[in-house]
Amino acid sequence: MRKIIVFLAVSIIAAVGLRAQETKMLKVKVQAANVRAEPDMTSAIVKQVNLGTMLESRQKIGDWFEIMVTDESGATISGYINSSVVDVVNAVAAKPAAGVPQAAVVSPVAAKPAPQPSPPPAAGIQRPRPSMMILGRYGSFAPSDAIFKTIYGSGSVLGGEIRFRVAGGFYLSLEGGYFNKKGLLTVTQDETTMTVYPIDAMLIFHALSGSIMPYVGAGGAGCKYQEKNVIGTVDGWGYGFAVCGGLSARLSFLGIDARVKYTSIKIKPLEDEAGLGGLTLSLAAGFIF
Q: What is residue 152's three-state secondary structure?
């Protein structure tokens, strides 16, 4: 007796599994498909189903799928739909609850993944240090030598600068300028003219590498000078040192620069030594690469 019961149980399980494997999902692919009472084109129409309706079929007879639909009274009845008006989609993963009309079965929709929080904005990347600057410079020169200041006073300086990056934040700055001023000799009150071509080469250190770059620098300074008056013409070279501090700012490949520079240059045109150095405040604009 026990063997018979086990055999029947195994048979039932196998039959259910086989039937579940035969279950298919159908999707109506025409605007209106007829569901007939029998698997025959001449059989009575029991219902019409619309485009896109999902149906469940447990078996197929020839070109007809057997399905379950609801009639006008709401009762669940069986019917048949021709394979030419439906597409077979994936097999049903789970049976719908009992009593639910088969025509109302809707295709399962994949669960949407939970929205992921937006990643935090990337940290600002510091701009690399420029490799070269080409600047045109305009400034005001105030001489430190008392005699020079008495005769000529302060004046404008025009010039230019090329700055190359050497390593890290260190740059080599090469600057040249032009200064020309008229004055009166202290004894004769005759007119005299001083022309100075200042040059300097400094090692500059930029503390930062972003859009605003403060810096300090120091190096050698020199000048070619010429003084003309009724007494005669005196010219020559003078040498000394220079120190500076400033601030460079850049926007894309354009840049501006503000600088304070002090130079100490000594000359000895005749017997007495004189100074051609002093304090220069300047602004510059140009290209930064």
A: coil
| Prediction pTM value | 0.57
Does the 23-104 domain belong in CATH 2.30.30.40? Answer: yes
Give domain limits for the chain.
Answer: 23-104, 132-288
Tokens of 8: 């029947």
Task: Tell me how crowded residue 235 is: count the other CB atoms within 10 A of its CB.
Answer: 12
Q: Report the chain's C-alpha Rg in angstroms.
A: 49
Three-state DSSP class for 60? strand
Q: Which residues contact 40 (CB under 8 A, 6 or more apart)?
A: 80
CATH topology of domain 132-288: Porin (2.40.160)
**pLDDT at residue 186, rounded to an integer:** 84
Dist CA 70 CA 102 (whole Å) = 8
The distance in angstroms from the start CA to the end CA of the chain is 97
Among 69-78, 91-100, 256-265, name the most confident range.
256-265
Tell me if residue 184 falls in helix, strand or coil: strand
Helix (H) or strand (E) holding 169: none
Two domains, one topology: 23-104 and 132-288: no
- Model confidence at 218: pLDDT above 60: yes
Burial of 249 (0-12, 13-18, 19+ CB in 10 A): middle
Tens digit of pLDDT for each residue in 266-280? 988 766 788 899 999
pLDDT reading at 17 higher than 80: no
Do 151 and 182 form a contact (C-beta atoms < 8 A)? Answer: no
